[in-house]
């Protein structure tokens, strides 16, 4: 059967006052199912909040836009949570086994967590944690009230160990008036070794093209176009 390589738009999974989520799901696209990969795009409005969820697979997150985002993570067997401030260009690997969970239904997103867990995860007191848990009835994304306290980045975090600003990094290839390429690998960013993934940021100017690339092994590449238009040719499939 011939593989369908035509570009696909993400399917809208959720939309609410706090933001929206779109997915390239393997159930919708046969080629993704064969490759066992997927993708998603999270759009948060001001004071939008994506509550805790569990990562059942390895992921890489990339911030396309914005400057004042916050992400909180708890890794398996870790005694403390990690809270980081995000900006455009930041890349964050998320290993499988991430210990935040997403609860659905009328009980609320955070209602299934103890007050102690919520207060520790979000660096708030027990009363604020109880209010947060009772107020959330949405499925995937919520909008926090104006006076509701947000988790703050921890001052003692070594952000460069778990987050990498690929936009600010020196490119591996930089051709004047043509474009640049920045490869993000475990050698540059050791934390990537925990997810077994890599990423490449390719920026092309008008009327420019990149040289042919090939995969020397059975690895799979997923390409996301953030801006502009162009053409891509794939051979050997």
TrEMBL record:
Residue span, Cupin type-1 domain: 3-130
Signal sequence range: none
SUPFAM superfamilies in alphabetical order: RmlC-like cupins
A Pfam family recorded for this sequence: Cupin_1
PANTHER family the record matches: OS03G0336100 PROTEIN-RELATED, OS09G0552500 PROTEIN
Protein name: Cupin type-1 domain-containing protein
Organism whose genome encodes this protein: Vitis vinifera
